[in-house]
Write a structure and sequence with these properties.
The chain is α/β, with parallel strands linked by helices. It contains ten helices and 16 strands. It has an eight-stranded parallel barrel with strand order 3-4-5-10-11-12-13-16, surrounded by five helices. Helix 3 packs across helix 4, helix 5 runs parallel beside helix 6 and helix 8 packs across helix 9. The radius of gyration is 19 Å and the shape is globular. The N and C termini lie close together (9 Å).
């Protein structure tokens, strides 16, 4: 599995990363054994970058990931988690499906982008993970807390990095404007951009990716399947966490037809596409089972001929100015 270094630092990530939201019961229950098997399959496939967050399953993602990685050599993998939501115990019962996770509502999330909140969140994450350190810490979805994130949370992360508590810092969001600001106005190592640089939409190409390239910083791409549509474009598929509109579904179906007519599953093209831009260091794939992990690894390694990109461009499904990968590159 190829790997790249984040920014100008010394933290490396494998080109294919494991997003650990799904194993925390994203949308549907996932059992302990199934979750552990998914992480084991990722390791066996050569994946050495794992991403989690307190938000995912109210801490369940961190606990499960820590348990699954606890017997692995710590220097052989890179782990990222996030800050900005502190988990507060809650005894009101119920579940967390309103936030997308099929887990008991044992805690509630409390937004906190203060310096103390950042430190508390990281300490709590380390306890749940059962590990002595994380490598990359990201500010998580500070959309409605922009000024506090820049004024208080970011300096706290910078201090933690200077102290050697963490090795790399950044931000993770579903939008590009603020992430671009992090790249240009701060000394982050990387940003995680979810859903905004895929076969279906390339908004990150306007400012985010050029800013990263100019600053020598890295971009990690999440949501490469646009929350499911590009993995299986069929009626009922989700796009951007909701039912795919008819027009978007049809476009994805046409993309699938182009790829499959050239012997390539659309999943393979979607996984490979982001690496056409040199600032992209890794693509995160969320998987809820070992079978899904093995499929992602297989598709990642599958060659995508230039005729796929040419076919998408010819049919007006991919703009001509969008960079595409060199065959075999990652």
């Amino acid at each position: 599995m190829p790997s790249r270094t984040l920014g100008r630092g010394d933290v490396s990530v494998t080109a294919l990363g494991f997003g650990a939201a799904a194993v925390a019961g994203l949308y549907a229950h996932v059992g302990e054994e199934q979750a552990a098997a998914a992480v084991d399959a990722a390791w066996e496939a050569g994946v050495r970058y794992f991403d989690t967050a307190p938000h995912y399953g109210l801490g369940l993602s961190e606990r499960r990931l820590g348990e699954a990685l606890g017997n692995r050599p710590r220097d052989e993998f890179t782990l990222s988690t996030k800050v900005g939501r502190v988990l507060v115990p809650h005894d009101g019962g119920g579940d967390d499906l309103a936030h997308g996770f099929a887990v008991p509502a044992t805690h509630r999330r409390q937004w906190d982008f203060s310096a103390d909140g950042v430190r508390r969140s990281l300490e709590d994450s380390l306890t749940r993970l059962g590990l002595d350190r994380v490598d990359l810490v990201l500010l998580h979805d500070p959309d409605d807390h922009e000024e506090q994130a820049f004024r208080e949370a970011y300096p706290a992360l910078e201090e933690l990095r200077s102290q050697g508590v963490v090795r790399a810092i950044g931000a993770g969001m579903n939008q590009t404007r603020m992430l671009t600001r992090f790249l240009t106005d701060t000394d982050v190592d990387a940003v995680l951009c979810a859903g905004r640089y895929t076969l279906l939409e390339q908004g990150a190409l306007d400012t985010l990716l050029p800013a990263a390239a100019a600053a020598g910083k890295s971009v990690i791409i999440g949501g490469v399947f646009n929350s499911g549509l590009l993995a299986d474009p069929s009626p009922g598929a989700t796009y951007d966490y909701a039912a795919a509109p008819a027009g978007v579904l049809r476009r994805a179906e046409r993309m699938r037809d182009v790829a499959e007519s050239r012997g390539v599953p659309l999943r393979a093209a979607a996984l490979r596409f982001p690496f056409g831009h040199p600032a992209v260091a890794s693509v995160l794939v969320g998987a809820r089972s070992a079978a899904q992990v093995r499929d992602a690894a297989e598709q990642f390694h599958r060659p995508v001929p230039d005729t796929v990109w040419e076919g998408l461009r010819t049919r007006g499904l991919l703009p001509g100015a969008v960079p595409v990968p060199v065959r075999g590159g990652a």
